[in-house]
Write a structure and sequence with these properties.
heterodimer; A: 294 residues; mainly alpha; MetI-like fold; two-stranded antiparallel ribbon; globular; B: 297 residues; 2 domains; 14 helices; disordered N terminus
């Protein structure tokens, strides 16, 4: 019996092989091929020509790319800060025992997260259209503004709208993550605090928040990786005035697949990868420092 | 909450009833404020979808001039103009085909590899598993240019292969299924299957897969949603209108119908409504899935 089960162990290897073969073909080879192309000059028609580091030196002086890094970071910060605060408040409210209709609220808050980002981008670009959009009509209808606001004519308003759409789409997801974190806090802690006469506010600030800190940090870190890759919805909302809402991946897409400068696009892809890597390492280091302090 | 109440109440028992009343009023005011806040946020979540449905049923001239609050009668007209130019139902069928076949492939091979990592011991297993986890860190668009060029070399541009086949390598799926095999597949069952003379693959099909069904449903829902919303890869790989999935068509609708708002809104409605129906059926499973995933992370 024993002998036969040892003989079977190779099957485990066979079972994981399809993953590696597929990843090799559709994942790893393209990544290495992209690196090779980033040292070439290739427009998609003629043969690639070796140009060394030319694409990368061009990248360092490319004001559009540098601007797109700034835009992406600004949009990410504008969306993540209010998003996490709102998600945290809602999670703490929905974790209270007296709230009715918990499932309904969770479902409604989470729903925007699964709607196709492209569709949301188109929907919001129509709603915020300054002449025909319903947002201006609504604001004028309730008397908040007298004239329609040209949202996409101001760099900061345009960024705020993109950030707002991202926030609107992701706060429900983060709320669910925080609720899961809240539910893993042992009840005895709350009971002990209540016996000691702590108010609800004290409990929230002194017990819940510190215990939730790891979950908050984790969400923050993972949001950097996603936030730096913003693409679908911002693409539909447009580049904004003076390219103020052009994100890094949008620039990659437009360079490679609109202007057919594939090799330069490959260099941009690697630059984005390096930027994401740096930010991930910084945040991991930051969270480790936090742990040591505690 | 209850315990807190009783403490407050016993603490106040000696005082007169007036203080108790103010506290009660304060409490119900706070409750009201909390509910008001929840409803306000829920309203913000749903309003764009309501506006989308209402607006899609009005003529362009009305959309441009008025704030529309109730449904109109122009839906069919808008719809006709949309399908004259964009084969949106074809896109819908394409999306279903891509999504279903990708999800099936992804589930089967995730379960197979997860099982292979969970229940067998062979040389290099841990290193291979770490490699799988490592691939999860790679941003999706890193290799996109090479992917495009490579698919060109394979003559796979404008076909579904580059969109469906990569679903076999779903690193998160393998991670998830390995956890599930660790916790819900007893090794004794596998041994009994072996004693009965089943081959290893037959054991997987007959004994392991049925036991994994609940976890496969959870993973399946998330793969399904992810693939349904997939945009960048199909956009660069597929040139033919007839082959494109729904998100690519919606993006096309935006560039082609620059002033035909009614038709654009109809396209958006057609894209959102199936998701809404899907979500209202499986929302409990989705929400518990997100929560379970969050706890593991």
């Amino acid at each position: 019996m024993r002998k036969s089960s040892i003989n079977k162990s190779q099957f485990g290897f066979y079972f994981v092989v399809p993953y590696f073969i597929t990843f090799l073909i559709f994942g790893l080879t393209p990544i290495i091929y992209s690196l090779y192309l980033s040292f070439m000059k290739w427009d998609g028609f003629s043969d690639p020509v070796f140009v060394g580091l030319a694409n990368y030196t061009r990248l360092l002086q490319d004001t559009f790319f540098l601007k797109s890094i700034g835009n992406t970071l600004i949009i990410w910060v504008l969306s993540i800060v209010p998003q996490l605060i709102l998600a945290l408040i809602l999670a703490m409210i929905l974790n209270e025992k007296f709230i009715r209709g918990k499932h309904f609220f969770r479902a409604v808050f989470y729903f925007p997260n699964i709607v196709t980002p492209v569709t949301l981008g188109v929907l919001f670009s129509l709603m915020f259209d300054w002449q025909t959009g319903s947002v201006n009509k609504l604001l004028m209808g309730i008397g908040l503004i007298d004239d329609p606001v040209n949202w996409f004519n101001s760099p900061w308003l345009a960024r705020l709208i993109v950030a707002g759409v991202i926030m609107w789409q992701y706060f429900g997801f983060n709320m669910l993550v925080f609720i899961a974190g809240l539910q893993s806090i042992p009840h005895e802690l709350y009971e002990a605090a209540e016996v000691d006469g702590a108010s609800r506010w004290d409990i929230a600030i002194k017990i819940t928040l510190p215990l939730l800190k790891p979950v908050l940090l984790f969400t923050f870190i993972t949001s950097i990786i996603g936030g730096l890759q913003l693409f679908d919805a911002p693409l539909m909302l447009g580049n904004g005035p003076d390219n103020s809402t052009l994100t890094m991946v949008m620039y990659l897409y437009q360079t490679a697949f609109k202007n057919f400068d594939y090799s330069y696009g490959a260099a941009i892809a690697y630059a984005i990868f390096v930027i994401i890597l740096i930010f991930s390492l910084i945040s991991i280091k930051f969270s480790k420092m936090n742990k040591v302090e505690q | 909450m209850k315990a807190n109440n009783s403490i407050v109440e016993t603490g106040l028992a000696g005082n007169n009833g007036k203080t108790k009343k103010t506290i009660n009023v304060k409490k119900s005011l706070a409750k009201f404020a909390v509910y008001f806040f929840l409803i306000l946020v829920a309203f913000t979540c749903l309003l764009p979808f309501y506006s989308m449905m209402v607006t899609s049923s009005h003529a362009n001239s009305d959309i441009a001039r008025k704030l529309l609050l109730v449904p109109g009668r122009e839906f069919v007209e808008n719809y006709k103009r949309l399908i004259d130019t964009v084969p949106i139902w074809r896109g819908f069928a394409n999306t279903i085909f891509i999504t279903v076949s990708s999800t099936v492939l992804s589930l089967y091979f995730s379960a197979l590899a997860g099982y292979g990592f969970s229940k067998y011991n062979y040389k290099g297993k841990n290193i291979l598993f770490m490699a799988v986890l490592g691939t999860m860190m790679i941003p999706g668009q890193l290799g996109i240019i090479g992917f495009f060029k490579l698919m060109d070399t394979f003559n796979m541009l404008n076909t579904y292969w580059p969109i469906i086949l990569p679903s076999i390598s779903n690193a998160f799926g393998i991670f998830f299924m390995k956890q599930m095999c660790d916790s819900s597949i007893p090794t004794e069952i596998l041994e009994s299957g072996r004693i009965d003379g089943c081959g290893e693959l037959k054991i997987f099909h007959r004994l392991v897969l049925p036991l994994l069904m609940p976890s496969l449903a959870t993973l399946g829902i998330f793969s399904f949603i992810g693939k349904w919303n997939d945009f960048l890869t199909p956009m660069i790989i597929l040139f033919d209108n007839e082959l494109q999935p729904l998100p690519v068509m919606i993006a096309m609708v935006k560039s082609q119908f620059s002033t035909d708002f009614g038709a654009m809104y109809v396209g958006i409605v057609i894209s959102v409504i199936p998701i809404l129906i899907f979500f209202s059926i499986v929302s409990k499973k989705i929400i518990s899935g997100v929560t379970a995933g969050a706890l593991k992370g």
